[in-house]
Amino acid sequence: MDGGYISRRGFSLVEMLVVLSIIGVMLALSAPMWMTQSTMDLNGASMRLATFFEEARAQSTAYGEPVRVLIHDDPTDPGNYRRRILALRREDKDSDDATPPQWRPVLHPLILPEGIFIDVDQPGVSQSRMSFTGSGAENLSWRYYEIEPSGVPSEDSARNVVLGKGIADSPGSQIRFPNPELVAGFRLSNRTRPIHFRNRDDIARSTR
Prior knowledge:
Number of helices: 2
Order of helices and strands: HEEEEEEEEEEEEH
Helix content: 25-40%
Low-confidence stretches: none
Number of strands: 12
Mean pLDDT: 82
Distance between the termini: 84 Å
Strand content: 25-35%
Number of domains: 1
């Protein structure tokens, strides 16, 4: 019966190629938008963190005591891992050699936005570590940058602070950075404001 005939013809090769071409164009147009948003997120986080360091510098000069900026670096606490930032002031005016110095928080903690982490594998990023007990940080490991009372980073302190868009696959795992070229950050200077990086080449040049 002619009235009951149903066509079973599939897509032609030309039609499939047209569809694939349209999808390719849409992906090509959307990728720069995603990259731009990621760059904006990183740059915004970098500016906030640089301001935090400047406030820590001001605390150091105001109190006449060293201040350390701590980067959470304990993967057993995945919610804060390489995202939580503290500033501590050393109080040791009345201590002797047998008494360890006391460290007191001087600023409200800073939490980096979701998906943004300190990239510790970049050149010039701090490898110095300390443990800090208090303020919910018991027995956790932290990396730190130290600022002298003069406002200058200590001689043995690292100078580069680098952020990247990362992924933590599971609690306790290391952070993966799918696009290592997508970075933001700054270098601590002696007197002026932090010097911001524009790309990975700036980071590499800063350590030469």
